[in-house]
């Protein structure tokens, strides 16, 4: 490369570096409303808490309507980790980790409900409803009395039972388990062989039956010699259906054979099930709701046709 070319290259780079107005032809600045929609984190000291207020009584009404189907009438939980009970047990030989026993700040509870609940419609609750649900969950744990009304000031002032006991030195589910948030960064001679993995507690691994056996027949090789596009079972597995449904056995949701039996005489079953999967919902097969599924309609109709026609 000649000296003239090198000088020209550096001159071009310097010009670009100095041009702070350079644009790339895509994207736009977010609006204030768009930023506010994401900027909803609430910190332990109350920073980020919105205006609003809610009572235990209002929270119970909302909870019974929108939460009890998953978390149980008294927070004992139907299919998820309990949200009530266990206060004072964390240092015992049989610690019970619930929302009430493990959290060290009540603002964390508010933040989680606000951004993630209810499961089938997160971020749909008003600020007053979130305050009310927070008050009711705290009441279920005997942390606040039944006549409590929470707002920003009273929520921050509330001291949780585990305020001074929170630790990252143990596993999430078992006290003697390996922590997943405590490590020392490698600075020298670090490994290049990175392996990802997870550990499910023994008592939870097969709580819905043998998942491997339930899904094995639905892999890409379920119909030898065919591609994904010609294999409805593989399409269902790729779409994530098999995470909650088995062919012969119920997992989190119903077995496909049970769906076929229920709808075999319904001439409009395919259209109804397409809308059901796209919109989500709960109550038809038990307490666990199904969130809306973002599956291409062509694939969705292939899957549903396979369920209705081949599994009866």
Describe the protein's architecture and organization.
Helices cover 39% and strands 2% of the residues. It has helices at 3-18, 32-38, 56-66, 68-71, 99-102, 106-116, 127-140, 152-157, 202-205, 211-216, 232-238, 256-263, 269-279, 297-310; strands spanning 53-55, 149-151. It has a two-stranded antiparallel ribbon. Helix 6 crosses helix 7 (127-140). The radius of gyration is 26 Å and the shape is globular. The N and C termini lie far apart (73 Å).
Q: On the 0-100 scale, what is the average pLDDT?
A: 80
The amount of beta strand, in percent, is under 5%
User: Low-confidence runs (pLDDT<50, min 5 residues)?
Assistant: 217-227
Return the structural class: mainly alpha
Distance between the termini: 73 Å
**What is the alpha-carbon Rg in Å?**
26 Å
How many beta-strand runs? Answer: 2
SS summary, helix count: 14
> What is the spatial order of strands in the main beta sheet?
1-2
Q: Tell the overall outline.
A: globular
């Amino acid at each position: 490369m000649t000296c003239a070319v090198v000088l020209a290259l550096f001159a071009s780079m310097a010009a670009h570096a100095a041009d702070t107005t350079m644009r790339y032809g895509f994207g736009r600045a977010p609006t204030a409303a768009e930023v506010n929609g994401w900027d909803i984190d609430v910190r332990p000291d109350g920073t980020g808490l919105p205006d609003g207020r809610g009572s235990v009584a209002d929270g119970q009404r909302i909870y019974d309507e929108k939460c009890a189907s998953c978390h149980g009438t008294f927070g004992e939980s139907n299919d998820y980790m309990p949200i009530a009970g266990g206060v004072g047990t964390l240092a015992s030989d049989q610690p019970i980790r619930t929302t009430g026993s493990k959290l060290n700040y009540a603002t964390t509870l508010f933040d989680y409900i606000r951004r993630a609940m209810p499961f089938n419609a997160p971020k749909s609750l008003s600020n007053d409803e979130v305050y009310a649900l927070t008050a009711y969950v705290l009441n279920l744990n005997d942390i606040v009395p039944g006549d409590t009304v929470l707002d920003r000031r009273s929520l921050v002032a509330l001291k949780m039972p585990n305020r001074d006991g929170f630790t990252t030195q143990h596993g999430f589910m078992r006290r003697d388990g390996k922590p997943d948030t405590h490590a020392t960064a490698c600075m020298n001679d670090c490994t290049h062989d990175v392996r990802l993995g997870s550990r499910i507690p023994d008592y939870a691994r097969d709580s819905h039956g043998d998942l491997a056996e339930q899904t094995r027949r639905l892999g890409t090789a379920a119909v030898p010699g065919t591609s994904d596009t010609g294999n409805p079972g593989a399409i269902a597995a790729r779409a994530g259906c098999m995470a909650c449904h088995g062919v012969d056995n119920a997992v989190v949701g119903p077995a496909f054979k049970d769906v076929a039996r229920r709808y075999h005489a319904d001439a409009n079953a395919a259209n109804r099930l397409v809308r059901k999967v796209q919109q989500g919902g709960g109550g038809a097969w038990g307490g666990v709701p199904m969130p809306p599924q973002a599956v291409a309609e062509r694939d969705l109709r292939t899957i549903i046709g396979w369920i209705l026609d081949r599994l009866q």
